Amino acid sequence: MSPKTIISVNDLHKSYGDFKAVQGISFEVFEGEIFGLLGPNGAGKSTTLEIIETLREKTSGAILVDGIDLDKSPEAIKKIIGVQLQSSGFYPNLNLIELIHLFVGLYQNQVDAIELLKKVNLEDKAKAKYKELSGGQKQRFSIATTLINNPKIIFLDEPTTGLDPQARRNLWELIKEIRDNGTTVIITTHYMDEAEILCDRVAIVDSGKIISINTPNALIDELVATGFEKVKEVKKANLEDVFIHLTGKEWRED
Ligand code: ADP
User: Fold this and answer.
1) 40 vs 16, 161, 205, 249, CA distance in Å?
2) Separation of 167 CA from ligand 1 center, angstroms?
3) Are 187 and 199 in contact (CB under 8 A)?
4) Which residues of the chain have pLDDT under 50?
5) CB contact at 8 A, 96 and 125
6) Which residues line ligand 1 (CB under 6 A)?
7) According to DSSP H, which parts of the chain are helical?
8) According to the model, what pLDDT value does residue 107 have?
9) What is the pTM of this model?
10) Residues 147-183: pLDDT tens digits?
11) Cα maximum dimension of the chain
12) 50 CA distance to ligand 1 middle (Å)
């Protein structure tokens, strides 16, 4: 069965004055996949995503989200996507239930706050203030807020930056669960191990252009086929495995 396209971006350009930040990007995201946008700082990832999220004006190009034309109905697109806010958007002294009600007010939607917290394994923390959460819990809460309007697609911007290895793995499982429940996930990350484990497909962006797009496996195979070899012999475990092994089980509450 061929995959259904849920986002299509065609020849997207964005200039800031004379500077061309995005220079003719085209790609498709398939329904139900975790799609990674990878690339060095300044490559144009955030610009591209914020245009799709209807938060930034494009210079030219065509974008369809679930069949909706961005130029015609940006408001309709807003209703079917969830965008992760930077944590600075949360009031530190409100508890999680209060924060959810605040967001629900913004969306004018009915939401069972406890059900939402259950989805990200935070029901025990319902009465905790935001500032009392660990780094991993804050990220999980921030992902919960993207799910408030039951979106078809969520956008996660470097969701695991700064987390310890257990919290990072917990978050990977959560993101896979969200995908398995039918939501398409677009994610940016600078961690290639994470992209390899988590993403069904990735696009690599550099200087405002997509320079490669495929499954992580296929990209690795393509590189190996060119005769590339690692300088160092690969061991059966890495330092992260040592860390996880020594500090306890992966599923420790973070
Ligand atoms: P990434 O997310 O890949 O790090 P960005 O999309 O944030 O890249 O930025 C791409 C380029 O566009 C960078 O060189 C950045 O400095 C520039 N840029 C981003 N936003 C603006 C803006 N509002 N005004 C001018 N230049 C910008």
Assistant:
1) 19, 15, 8, 33
2) 29
3) yes
4) none
5) yes
6) 16, 19, 21, 39, 41-47
7) 45-52, 74-80, 96-107, 113-119, 135-146, 165-180, 192-198, 216-225, 239-247
8) 65
9) 0.91
10) 988 999 999 999 998 888 888 999 999 999 999 999 9
11) 56
12) 11
Residue 249: count other Cβ atoms within 10 Å of its Cβ: 8
Output the pLDDT for position 102.
83
Q: How far is the CA of 207 from the centre of ligand 1 (A)?
A: 10
Q: How far apart are CA 143 and CA 146, in angstroms?
A: 5
Question: Which of 160, 120, 155 lies closest to 140, judged by CA?
Answer: 120
Q: At 204, is the secondary structure helix, strand, or coil?
A: strand
Which ligand 1 atom is at minimum distance from the Cα of 188?
Answer: 2
Residues contacting residue 157 through CB under 8 Å, at least 6 positions apart: 46, 49, 84, 86, 187, 188
Fill in the DSSP letter of residue 129: B
Query: What gap in Å lies between CA 185 and CA 205, rounded to an integer?
Result: 18
Candidate from 46, 49, 157, 161 with most ligand 1 atoms within 8 A of CB, to mutate: 46
- CA dist., res. 29 & res. 18, Å (int): 29
- Nearest CA owner, ligand 1 atom 26: 16
User: Count of alpha carbons within 13 Å of 60, Cβ hemisphere only?
Assistant: 4
